[in-house]
Write a structure and sequence with these properties.
Largest sheet: 5 strands, parallel
Structural class: alpha/beta
CATH topology of the largest domain: Rossmann fold
CATH class of the largest domain: Alpha Beta
CATH superfamily of the largest domain: HUPs
Radius of gyration: 22 Å
Strand order of the largest sheet: 9-8-7-10-11
Number of helices: 21
Strand content: 5-15%
CATH architecture of the largest domain: 3-Layer(aba) Sandwich
Helix content: 40-55%
Shape: globular
Number of strands: 11
């Protein structure tokens, strides 16, 4: 039998009646009945919960499933081959870093052998650890992108590439970049994720020609950090934390509005909490940080992160070291006190690539030897100066939606979709007008809701073609 990954990188679906396998590209044209409750959660959170889809008769093949496909018909073993656990071993930071390095290098060497790899770089730690692990790779090309009018985030990537002598190209993502490719994206991701985060669509045609496989650092920041809660937090408190984490700004209001429109029984927020409680109860871990991480890795990673990874896999192979089953199992044995604050990745970089550890970390604008001084009293003057400088400088583009929704040209394109007649049978025009008006009043709060309405409009438009 085949195995779906502990964190699956490629979404797979099936018809619950015929057992026919469905791929992302098949979803929009499916003729099944809508699962309105599932769509409400999707609208509020930006990803579908558990095995939900747009349809009552189409389900997602869950993580860690074993299955067999014969002539397009799938049979699934109901018993997963892996369940997240927390059994911390008695290891020091040094030992854990050695173990991580050995595993990480083995995965990289195995997966990238004889391939020309394409490495997207950022100012964070996950791509930097990949740069360290691949510093001696014979055939690597790297790139980075930033917003036009943005905060200069590519400066960090440039320094990383220069330090390791990687071939490197810098891209600028311009205003309204997505409108020319948005319908192509809708087919690639099946409208299973909203569109304003897909910056890679602006460069994918060029970068995909530079090698055989993308190597991506997705989910390292979740596996190798704490969840910011007390280890002994009660189950009820965990539900409340998750409720706040999964809801996007303005998402609850949109979910509730759709719930009322479709005349669903009960209250939307009660239903969402019940779904979260059911999902979290299935994870048999006492430690709250480990349990929340397991929840995010079971639901958030495959249903949100992996959805837009298809932009890369649509053109090239994806290599995802942090998605690797062995990496997931490794995490289950590491004490939370060592996972907290990215300690293992930072120690790894100091030990195996000190030249990269000396480059500033974008989050703090300090290197990995001094970033802890960010909150120290001695750094208060520098923080104050930077804050004033930012306030006095020209407005910076900080968020993807600013390039897509602001300005007359963007608004005209947006209106073509959100007021398209195909959306009206699913979402009436009054709701669209309401959230567009709210967006103009509080754009940061309501950008997600507007983006979800755009996603639903693409879904209904392409469904009718």
């Amino acid at each position: 039998m085949q195995k779906n990954g502990i964190i699956p990188s490629k979404p797979l679906f099936y018809n619950t009646n015929s057992k026919e396998v469905l791929y992302t590209k098949d979803l929009i044209k499916h003729k099944g009945a809508y699962d309105f409750k599932a769509i409400c959660i999707y609208a509020a959170c930006g990803f579908f919960m558990d095995d939900d889809t747009y349809y009552t008769d189409v389900k997602y093949v869950k993580p860690a499933s074993k299955y067999n496909i014969d002539n397009g018909i799938i049979s699934i073993d109901e018993n997963p081959y892996f369940e997240w656990y927390y059994k911390p071993r008695d290891v020091s930071l040094s030992q854990a870093t050695d173990e991580f390095a050995n595993l990480f290098h083995d995965i990289l060497n195995t997966e990238t052998k004889d391939k020309k790899v394409i490495l997207p770089l950022s100012g964070g730690l996950d791509s930097r650890t990949l740069a360290a692990g691949l510093k001696n790779h014979p055939n690597l090309w790297s790139y980075s992108y930033g917003f036009k009018g943005g905060i200069g985030e590519t400066q960090y990537s440039n320094k990383i590439a220069h330090a390791e002598k990687f071939a490197f190209k810098e891209y600028e993502i311009g205003e309204g970049y997505l409108w020319d490719t948005i319908e192509k994206l809708a087919v690639i991701n099946g409208c299973m994720s909203e569109f304003t985060h897909a910056r890679q669509m602006a460069v994918i045609e060029d970068v995909s020609k530079q090698g055989d496989a993308f190597i991506l650092g997705h989910w390292g920041d979740v596996l190798f950090d704490g969840m910011g809660v007390a280890d002994n937090m009660s189950f009820e408190e965990q539900i409340n934390i998750l409720y706040k984490k999964v809801l996007k700004k303005g998402g609850l209001e949109l979910g509730m509005e759709l719930w009322r429109l479709w005349e669903l029984e009960g209250e939307f927020d009660d239903y969402l909490k019940q779904r979260l409680e059911t999902a979290l109860a299935k994870i048999k871990i006492d430690n709250a940080n480990a349990r929340i991480r397991a929840f995010k890795s079971t639901h958030w990673a495959p249903r949100w992160t992996s959805t837009n990874l298809q932009i890369f896999s649509h053109t090239n192979e994806n290599i995802l070291p942090y998605y690797n089953d062995r990496m997931c199992e490794f995490i289950c044995g590491i004490p939370e006190e060592l996972l907290n604050s990215r300690q293992i990745q930072i120690e790894y970089l100091k030990r195996y690539a000190p030249e990269l550890a000396k480059i500033k970390w974008q989050t703090y604008d300090l290197d990995l030897y001094s970033y802890k001084r960010f909150y120290h009293w001695s750094n208060i003057p520098n923080r104050a100066i930077n804050k004033v400088r930012n306030m006095l400088s020209n407005p910076k583009i900080l968020r993807n939606w600013e390039l897509q929704f602001l300005g007359e040209a963007n608004e005209a394109k947006l209106h073509e979709y959100i007021y398209h007649k195909s959306l009206q049978p699913l979402v009436n025009t009054d709701i669209v007008k309401k959230f567009e008006s709210l967006f103009h009043l509080e754009p940061v709060k309501y950008s997600h809701a507007l983006s979800m309405l755009l996603t639903l409009s693409l879904f209904t438009k392409l469904k009718g073609k």
